Amino acid sequence: EFALYGTPGVWEVSARPDSSNKLYSLDPPVRITGGKGVVSSVNFVLHLADAVITGQVIDDAGNSVFDAFGFIDISQEGFMTERRDFFFDGPGMGGPVERGIFSFPVPAGSYALSFYLPPDSSYTGGPSVKVTIASGETLSVKMKVFRNTSKITGTLKDKDGKTVTGVPVRVF
C-alpha cells in the first residue's frame, strides 16, 4: 500500500520498486487530477524479473568495443520504442554499461533496448534493439555504436536573436 499527498493539479503517478528486489512495474504512468479533498486510487502490478538480458557493445564492423560506457534503457515493447526522455516514460529497467558489457534481470516480455552514452563519449549509440525473452531465459544482445567523427556546435538565442547565457540547458 502507498499514500501520496499533493497539491491540486494534474499528476503522473508511477511505481518504481527497488530493482535489487527483482520486481518491476511495467505499467506506464497514470495521470490523475487532484483537488481539495479529492482522493484518487491507483493500482500497479509488479512483475518478477526472472529472466536476464546480457550483452556487449560492438562497432559497425561487428568488433567488440571495450571502451564504451553508458546506460542501457529497457522499455516495454510497444510502449515507446524510440529514444526516450530519461526522466520517466517507462518501466525504468536497465542499468550501466561498463567496458562494453552489461547484464540486467527483467520480467519475461518484449522490450526495446536503447544505449545512452555520455555527451563527451567517443561513440554514438546505434538503433534500439527489439527482443523477446521468456521466463527463466538468458538472452545475449549486441548493441551497436558508431565512432563519432564530427561535432555539432552552436549558440542558443532568444526570440529576438540575442545570445542566451547563464541558463542551464540540455541540447539533444
- How many helices in DSSP terms? 0
Shape descriptor = flat
Biggest beta-sheet profile = 4 strands, mixed
Widest sheet: strand ordering = 8-5-12-10
Q: Decide which structural class fits the backbone.
A: mainly beta
Element-level helix/strand string: EEEEEEEEEEEE
Count of extended strands: 12
Low-confidence stretches: 79-91
Beta-strand content: 35-45%
Radius of gyration: 20 Å
Query: What distance lies between the first and last C-alpha atoms, to the nearest angstrom?
Result: 38 Å
Look at the structure and give the mean pLDDT.
87
Helix % is under 10%
Could you please describe the fold and organization of this structure?
- The chain has 172 residues and is mainly beta.
- It is 0% helix and 40% strand.
- It has strands spanning 9-13, 23-25, 30-34, 46-48, 51-58, 70-76, 93-97, 101-106, 109-116, 123-125, 129-133, 138-147.
- The strands form four sheets. A four-stranded mixed beta sheet has the order 8-5-12-10, with no helix packed on it.
- It is flat.
- It starts with 8 loop residues before the first strand and ends in a 25-residue tail after the last strand.
